């Protein structure tokens, strides 16, 4: 027997009439009678008592009705579960992020919007440096990554999409000699010791970008793998830091933010993910993130 026969059987039960059941099922009555007869032959007994006026269940038919209803309901549930997963309404999205994804507010905005649209999808977060995000996605440990581009070259199996772009500003200690200036220029910061976010094996690309923007080789005082460490070192007077303009909303004792004039280098944020993505919840996240720019 199959689910179609069970549905035919239950329709006859509900209508108590083969003609009305056939009409409801949009099939001819002889075809319906043939399917019910085949079902009775398979179970080895009569399921209906047929008269010229109505159709009634036998005792065996009553037992079969209960089991058929369970089977059809379970099949519908299984279909619904899979369809919801394919639409991205259930499941999990595993996200890797660099610190600036938090401080720029982009990741938080996406999480709030996604949770409102897909409340039953679990979001799992893991802080990872940019180069580790790409490796984790390829290894199947996370699904998407939020990180700055920083001249990093990614594997061809991955796609990167620009989802944020901001001017750079300077973070420095309140007692720094440049703290009194209203506006800083690249000439004013060219020889200042810099605190930079380390990207690991992509550091060379980042330093080359800095040299082009400054017009001279940068003086690197510290390279650290945490965005918060960059700000703390700047507040402690260990150098100055180039950070996205959105960091102005991050207060830290002893730290000032200063605008930077005519500086070519900008901060950006990319969304990193598998080029061929099949998981419904992840596809839903990507679609929402694109629309939430």
Automatic annotation (TrEMBL):
Gene3D superfamilies: Periplasmic binding protein-like II (3.40.190.10), Winged helix-like DNA-binding domain superfamily/Winged helix DNA-binding domain (1.10.10.10). Signal peptide: none annotated. GO terms for cellular component: protein-DNA complex. Residues 1-58 form the HTH lysR-type domain. Keywords: DNA-binding, Repressor, Transcription, Transcription regulation. GO terms for molecular function: DNA binding; DNA-binding transcription factor activity. It comes from the Bacteria. Pfam families: HTH_1 (PF00126), LysR_substrate (PF03466). Belongs to the LysR transcriptional regulatory family. This is LysR family transcriptional regulator. It comes from Ewingella americana (strain ATCC 33852 / DSM 4580 / CCUG 14506 / JCM 5911 / LMG 7869 / NCTC 12157 / CDC 1468-78).
């Amino acid at each position: 027997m199959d689910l179609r026969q069970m549905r035919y059987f239950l329709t006859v039960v509900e209508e108590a009439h083969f003609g009305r059941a056939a009409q409801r099922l949009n099939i001819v009555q002889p075809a319906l009678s043939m399917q019910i007869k085949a079902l009775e032959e398979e179970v080895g007994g009569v399921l209906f008592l047929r008269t010229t006026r109505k159709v009634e269940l036998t005792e065996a038919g009553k037992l079969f009705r209960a089991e058929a209803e369970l089977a059809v309901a379970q099949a519908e549930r299984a279909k619904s579960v899979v369809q919801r997963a394919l639409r991205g309404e259930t499941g999990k999205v595993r996200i890797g992020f660099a610190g600036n994804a938090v401080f720029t507010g982009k990741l938080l905005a996406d999480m709030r919007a996604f949770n409102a649209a897909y409340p039953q999808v679990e979001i799992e977060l893991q802080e990872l440096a940019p180069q580790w995000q790409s490796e984790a996605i390829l290894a199947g440990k996370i699904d998407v990554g939020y990180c700055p581009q920083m001249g990093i070259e990614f594997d061809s199996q991955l796609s990167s999409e620009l989802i944020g772009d901001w001017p750079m500003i300077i973070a420095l200690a309140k007692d720094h000699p440049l703290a009194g200036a209203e506006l800083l220029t690249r000439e004013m910061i060219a020889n200042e010791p810099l605190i930079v976010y380390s990207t690991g094996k992509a550091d060379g690309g980042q330093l080359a970008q800095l040299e082009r923007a400054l017009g001279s080789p940068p003086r690197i005082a510290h390279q650290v793998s945490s965005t918060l460490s960059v700000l703390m070192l700047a507040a402690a007077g260990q150098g100055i830091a180039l950070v996205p303009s959105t960091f102005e909303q991050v207060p830290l004792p002893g730290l000032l933010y200063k605008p930077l004039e005519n500086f070519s280098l900008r901060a950006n944020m990319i969304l990193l993910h598998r080029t061929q993505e099949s998981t419904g919840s992840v596809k839903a996240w990507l679609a929402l993130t694109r629309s939430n720019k």
